[in-house]
């Protein structure tokens, strides 16, 4: 990880251009609830902010993400983790995410914006059949109880 | 050898009962003391205790002498005199319990004196009394202090000297006798006198430091006095500045204590208290840790007395400003100021009106008027201080906040301006300036020009750019007034939308906070045709002169000079708000009406507001309200309530109105937006992005990131700042700034 991070200086011009244009797209679109920006001068490491979509149990909850782009982006998927602890069937306690487009179904046509939108969708619509967080997956059916546990978790960890 | 000497012989190892008997016998004997001094001396010298068993022997002697003291009292009583009285009282007190070594030695000396010489007996008794009192006070100081100490010793230098004189005479008498006990006397005398004089010095210091003596130096004379008293004793006791240096130190510490307690008031009274503050500085000098103690003490006082809801923000700011000068006088390292500045700043940051108060203090406070003079005073004081050596052990690194050895005014400005970030002051100043400029008579902004100059001095020329534009607008308005107004009698101030505070420049001033904004927040209404015609005429002339610009009137900010002719023939001149003039014009046409009709005539939806304006006229005696919510012109000719009669007269109720001069606000729309503030809306998206994800950022970081990530960016930091300043001003944005960091409202 650190090796990648320090490669900012020798960043391939094509990758830089791609990321810069993705940033531009993202900034100009300014979609509600999703945002991301390079952490510093390193274009390969971004911080994202994800807000739960309205009328889902995650409504209004805000999560910080870490987006690490590989030096051969977009041919390899970025590594995305939750920085804010997130209680979710497809997120483990270290913030790793189970989302197919970030793994086997990655394609170079995806971009930061589509990834963030997918993640926002995933929040409100988890894939309970392949959980990283068993208890959360089991509780998903009982939305009321799920929301109670979720808010308790959020209050304890995210604020 | 006499009975007395024999009695002393018998002391060794007798049981107490025997001693009592002895006391009886001695009592009888000493009624006519006859023992020659030299015999007694030899005797006592022989009986001087060896180091090891001395204590026991003397303790026994003490018991014995305690018994004996009552006889001494009787002796003294026979001789009469105040000294005897004092002695008796003290002897009695000693009998009650406290058997201090010093006490009984002193007593034995008195006894010796009494036995040795009839003439000196009373004197010795006085000596003992003084010594005893002092020694006792040394042991149980708390019982006597402070009232007693002041009464007995410190009430005045004269009393003090008298007491010392008595004591010294006693010691001298003993010395003359060449008594063997003189060595004890010396020791006791030293201790006792030290205590006496220190106590006296402290009491004198407390007196000298009493409020009202802040206008002259106290420490110098006090120390001199203490030194003189001490030196007398030093000479008698043959010590080298032993007593006097202790006395001086005692006096100094005592004054320090007094001044520390007063420091809060001293700051409030500054600069009248400058001399007292100098005393405090000199007291602290050479006393390790005293500055810190002073700082702690003041910090507690400030938190308890100033930083609470009951204190007006202006007072807190005033105290802070005074503290910069006052505490700079006490302590050049800035430690004391630093200790109070922290809490004050944190507290001020929680007060919404603090920015305005600070700007006010900078512009109108004592600082602004007496600036140069105060600065000169301080620098001369600083020169004075230069000579003093920094005492060892009190050196503290200069705190980061304590900047600048500049002038007093500059120091105060640096401190006050450090409470918030510059933009907050700029905004507050612009708001105040706008309010003042709009209230100007005849466009004379010379006072405001000076204010802008002064503010520019504090905040930097860049910060007052906007203010300068406002001043230019006023100058331009004056020119326009000369060209246009002649025919209309209407004087307008034309302001540029881009540069005047939002509250004034935009039509919807909802949520704006400044004072000027409050005036601008007025429901919409239309001018009466007469006024409307004048305004249109003016605007037409303006647009002919400045074809590219458009005017938007702000009626609420103007005023109308009216000449109202009352029903009784009197004429009243007054200057009122345009809405009031409009209301009066309407009622002049309509006669007896209710507020709703007036509101409809003015096309105003806010009926209660119109009613308030009508009632303002009722309060001025121009209208009256015969029934609730119904208004008509007042007729002072008919004192009686003439109900319907007034209605008939309304036609004559000539609120004849002459629009003498109308100052109204308007703004001009310049087609080219504004060269100074570039359109950075693309950048703004990035800024929102970085603030959302990274959190609060300072301007330079934001600028660096924009340069990196926005393709083809060539914005300068200043352009960015100007752009963000506009964003900050416009309330619809989520951007806010504090402590130099931009952030988004949550």
Automatic annotation (TrEMBL), chain A:
Record keywords, A-Z: Acyltransferase, ATP-binding, Nucleotide-binding, Transferase, Ubl conjugation pathway
InterPro entries, sorted: Ub_conjugating_enzyme (IPR050113), UBC (IPR000608), UBQ-conjugating_AS (IPR023313), UBQ-conjugating_enzyme/RWD (IPR016135)
Gene assigned in the entry: UBC11
Protein name: Ubiquitin-conjugating enzyme E2 11
Similarity comment text for this entry: Belongs to the ubiquitin-conjugating enzyme family.
Keyword Mitochondrion: no
Domain UBC core: 14-159
EC numbers on record: 2.3.2.23
Species of provenance: Coemansia erecta
Catalytic residues (UniProt): 98 (glycyl thioester intermediate)
One Gene Ontology molecular-function label: ubiquitin conjugating enzyme activity
SUPFAM superfamilies, sorted: UBC-like (SSF54495)
Cited Pfam families: UQ_con
Enzyme class label: transferase
Superkingdom: Eukaryota
PROSITE patterns named in the record: UBC_1, UBC_2
UniProtKB/TrEMBL annotation, chain B:
Domain Cullin family profile: residue ranges: 421-608
Gene Ontology cellular component terms for the protein in this record: anaphase-promoting complex
Gene3D superfamilies: Cullin, Chain C, Domain 2, Winged helix-like DNA-binding domain superfamily/Winged helix DNA-binding domain
Matching InterPro entries: ANAPC2, ANAPC2_C, Cullin_homology, Cullin_homology_sf, TPR_ANAPC2, WH-like_DNA-bd_sf, WH_DNA-bd_sf
Record protein name field: Anaphase-promoting complex subunit 2
Alphabetized PANTHER family for the sequence: ANAPHASE-PROMOTING COMPLEX SUBUNIT 2 (PTHR45957:SF1)
A GO BP entry: metaphase/anaphase transition of mitotic cell cycle
UniProt organism field: Coemansia erecta
GO molecular function, one term: ubiquitin protein ligase binding
Family: Belongs to the cullin family.
UniProtKB keywords: Cell cycle, Cell division, Mitosis, Ubl conjugation pathway
Keyword Cell division: yes
Domain of life assignment: Eukaryota
